[in-house]
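Journal club prep — side note

Before the paper discussion, L.F. wants everyone to see what a predicted structure for a comparable chain looks like in token form. Sequence:
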Amino acid sequence: MEDRIKQYKTEETYVEIKRLFLSALKAYAERAFTKLKDFETNALINKQTLAYESYKKLGAKEVIQKITVKSPTNIEVKIRENQNIVVVADLEASLERYVIDEKTDSIIEGVREKIGTYNYRISLIENENTDSSIICENCGATIEKSEDTCPYCHVVNSNRNNRLLIADISEVSMRDILQEANEKYKREKELEMKNERLQEEMEKRRNSL
């Protein structure tokens, strides 16, 4: 069990999480829902599709562009009761995000040409997808998962080794992140002090013998 957790506490995992999140954001921004299956679970894709359809019914469109993502922080790796791995991480993204009226192109929500900073918490699970083929992220062609590059557009196949899929994305405030980090630090200090007291008690007992 420890070995399974350890394999996700690596630099490779940090890189993979950032790549998956950036790819998923771009695919959603392009409304390329077929691409999302290489980065997200079906349940999350269905949730995002419903959100898109809700905007569409109102004659509105959410615009997301000029995306940059920082490396993940506060990564936690857990094993569920069903033995599945769950990885939770916080990410900071800078992007332009607003909602427009599709007919008039007028702004309904947000500000055009304004880059905002958003904090996200994402949960990822192990990728159990055994499909041998995937959709090329660049040109949309169906290619073999084992291909290093797409044989059609020759772009590097960045999805060939996805170990994880994003299961949930939620927006969080920096205040929440700092508060959780502070609470975690307090718990760790309390545990450290408890262990020190225990060591002192054991030392006293040994000396009294």
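L.F.'s comment for the group: Helices lie at 2-6, 11-29, 42-57, 174-208. Keep this in mind when we get to the figures.
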